[in-house]
Design a protein that fits this description.
This protein is α/β, with parallel strands linked by helices. Helices cover 45% and strands 14% of the residues. The protein has a seven-stranded parallel beta sheet, sandwiched between helices. The protein has a six-stranded parallel beta sheet with strand order 10-9-8-11-12-13, with helices on both faces. Helix 7 links the parallel strand 8 and strand 9.
């Protein structure tokens, strides 16, 4: 029978991002299932939410890439392990993984790592494959971890990221007030077949190809309007300007709108006719593709990476050969006339992700260090009791000058 676990996750900081959201989602799920959840990070804007949802946060500067600073964190993390005695440590980034690896080996605690993306294949990155189990966020990332980072296939487990079904329910639409404001802000979308590309403005995300596709469909007479939803990196404003100039050059100023960064992407996806993923490099997972499909919105994308894996399960007809804009145009013409039905059921959910991850934790607790780990923990408990007896002895207080 699976028992209550004490789970310690480690990441650099708790601000906005995919890794951070995965930690929040996982921690909430662990608490809801009756486990004890701990997180070590250098802090961030999401700490209050984490703690409000039942996880205890321990603030340590485990984000510095300075080797000396990182090594100095090992004894401090080891002290946490001795105090909290977690059943498993889950490291989700490279610097925390190095710290966790060194501390976990001394404490006899099994280490799980998650490979979230396509890390540069070097010694520094290979720490992400040195857990007793290595989780990959997609089969594509798993293959990369084996081929480029040297992961042991026997230790590898593919667990896709997930969305909250209650936040992205099938068939959901935004309320009337939001739709009124939306129509007022973008009247050019009225009565149009809205095709949305949700992605930050980056050359590999496919905005230039999107412009060519919309232009071809406008020339065909389709009542299409393209939405480019996303802002540039602060140091990449030049590319945003280049996209805006290309829209003008292509004569698409009245047919393509750049919204910039939006905090209401869910609502925008829900009122789109079609959502696209045109990343020319493979996505590690493809969260917006799952979000759109979870809402029931037809979604098409280049047939590689995590997007391939998602579409293969939920909407195979949406797979388009890489950079084949002619095939994408043909698909959108068909979908304009006859929209496909998206399956209302899928496995890419937070609940599935949490349950699968807990299964990995139970696996390492059962199969890794089964006897040795118990003996080491017993030694740690004895040392803690011994140290406590010294700290509270009158002679120790007199020698140290401490007053209790």
């Amino acid at each position: 029978m699976n028992h209550r676990l004490t789970i310690l996750q480690m990441l650099p900081e708790l601000n906005v991002g995919g890794v951070e959201q995965g930690v929040l989602d996982s921690a909430r799920g662990y608490v809801q299932r009756g486990h004890h959840s701990l997180v070590i990070s250098a802090g961030g804007t999401k700490v209050p939410q984490l703690e409000a949802e039942g996880t205890r946060h321990i603030t340590l500067p485990v984000h510095s890439k300075n080797p000396a600073t990182a090594l100095a964190m090992v004894p401090r993390v080891l002290a946490v392990l001795q105090q909290e005695q977690p059943d498993v440590i889950h490291a989700r980034s490279r610097v925390p993984a190095w710290i966790a690896l060194l501390a976990a080996r001394r404490a006899g605690v099994p280490l799980v790592t998650t490979v979230h993306g396509f890390y540069t294949p070097n010694f520094y990155s290979r720490v992400m494959t040195r857990g007793e189990r290595v989780i990959a966020v997609s089969a594509t990332v798993g293959d990369y971890a084996v081929q480029k980072l040297g992961a042991d296939p026997a230790r590898l487990r593919v667990i896709h990221r997930g969305v909250h079904r209650e936040r992205y329910p099938y068939g959901w639409k935004p309320d009337a007030e939001w739709q009124r404001r939306w129509r007022g802000q973008y009247p050019e979308l009225a009565e149009k077949f809205v095709v949305t590309l949700p992605a930050r403005l980056s050359r590999w995300k496919g905005q230039m190809e999107f412009i060519r596709v919309v232009a071809a469909l406008v020339r065909d007479g389709l009542p299409i309007h393209g939405l480019i939803v996303g802002g540039p990196h602060p140091r990449r404003q030049d590319y945003a300007d280049e996209v805006a100039r290309e829209i003008v050059r292509a004569g698409m100023s009245g047919h393509i709108t750049m919204t910039g960064h939006r905090g209401d992407l869910r609502e925008i996806l829900a009122v789109s006719g079609v959502v696209l993923s045109l990343s020319t490099d493979p996505e590690a997972f493809g969260r917006t593709t799952v979000e759109a499909l979870s809402l029931g919105i037809p979604t098409a994308g280049y047939d590689h990476g995590g997007v391939h894996e998602i579409l293969d399960v939920l909407l195979p007809s949406g797979k388009v050969p890489l950079r084949d804009t002619d095939a994408l145009c043909r698909l959108l013409r068909r979908w304009y006339k006859s929209p496909p039905r998206v399956s209302p059921h899928h496995p890419f959910t937070v609940d599935h992700m949490v349950d699968e991850t807990l299964g990995v934790y139970h696996e390492v607790c059962r199969d890794v260090f089964p006897e040795a780990r118990r003996e080491i923990h017993q030694e740690i408990r004895q040392e803690i009791r011994h140290q406590a007896s010294i700290d509270h002895s009158p002679s120790h207080h007199a020698a140290t000058g401490h007053v209790y």
